[in-house]
């Protein structure tokens, strides 16, 4: 429901004020879904939808900063998306490259690409790495940019890294199997050293993770929003955070 502007502003302020400071999520993961459907709903091109979605990212990061979030992970492109037709994929990659360069240029946020960068065109992976290098000394919000990302592949990459490391050291296979535990995967994930996501938001009404942060989200709280990503508002973000704050987190216990 969209409220008249004066009431909307009042409601938004009350929502923000109602968030307990000690119940703000440290790490928020966001599945930026619905760009294409948003574009179709208004008779625009798919590229227009992706561009509007990219334009929304800085707003989300500002909202996250305002309430004290420390890490945001943005799922911008999955490994499955790489199978899209070139006439859609190529403009989308160009939009992602431009968006990442613009975010880095602000010098407000520390960017970290995550995903199978080797599957991306060189110009895309180069743009992502350049953004990481340009912001590595920034002390602000840590932003993971998931491009060419798939949760299953991330876990496979972590196991592969562990096996290669021990193969090079000449570890016996039986000994390796005996030593292997969950921490060996956790310390080799793309998000190593970061807190696991407390809250995962997916826009567009889809109620599934689709492979997003499969390992890290074992104890996450999920929030599914009906709005397409280009229509996602600060009030929607605050509602998600309010819902998170109101839940009793058992963390598997």
TrEMBL record:
Organism: Cellulomonas chitinilytica
Name recorded for this polypeptide: Isoprenyl transferase
EC number: 2.5.1.-
One Gene Ontology term of the molecular function aspect: Z-farnesyl diphosphate synthase activity
Needed co-factor(s): Mg(2+)
BP-aspect Gene Ontology terms: polyprenol biosynthetic process
Top-tier EC class: transferase
Active site: 33, 81
Assembly and oligomerization: Homodimer.
Lineage, highest ranks first: Bacteria, Bacillati, Actinomycetota, Actinomycetes, Micrococcales
């Amino acid at each position: 429901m969209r409220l008249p502007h004066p009431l909307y502003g009042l409601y938004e302020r009350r929502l923000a004020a109602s968030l307990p400071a000690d119940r703000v999520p440290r790490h928020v993961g966001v599945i930026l879904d619905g760009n294409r459907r948003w574009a179709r709903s208004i008779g625009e091109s798919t590229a227009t939808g992706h561009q509007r979605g990219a334009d929304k990212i800085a707003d989300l990061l500002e909202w996250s900063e305002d309430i004290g979030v420390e890490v945001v992970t943005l799922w911008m492109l999955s490994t499955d998306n790489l199978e899209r037709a070139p006439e859609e994929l190529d403009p989308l990659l160009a939009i992602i490259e431009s968006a990442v360069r613009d975010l880095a240029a602000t010098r407000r946020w520390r960017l970290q690409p995550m995903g199978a960068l080797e599957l991306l065109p060189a110009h895309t992976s180069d743009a992502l790495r350049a953004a990481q290098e340009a912001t590595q000394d920034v002390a602000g919000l840590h932003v993971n940019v998931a491009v060419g990302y798939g949760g299953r592949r991330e876990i496979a990459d972590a196991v592969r890294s562990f096996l290669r490391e021990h193969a090079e050291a000449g570890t016996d296979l039986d000994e390796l199997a005996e030593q292997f535990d969950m921490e060996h995967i956790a310390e080799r994930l793309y998000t190593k050293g970061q807190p696991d996501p407390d809250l995962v938001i997916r826009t567009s009404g889809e109620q599934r993770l689709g492979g997003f942060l499969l390992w890290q989200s074992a104890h996450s709280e999920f929030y599914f929003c009906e709005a397409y990503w280009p229509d996602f508002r600060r009030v929607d973000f605050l509602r998600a955070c309010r819902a998170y704050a109101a839940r009793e987190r058992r963390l598997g216990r």
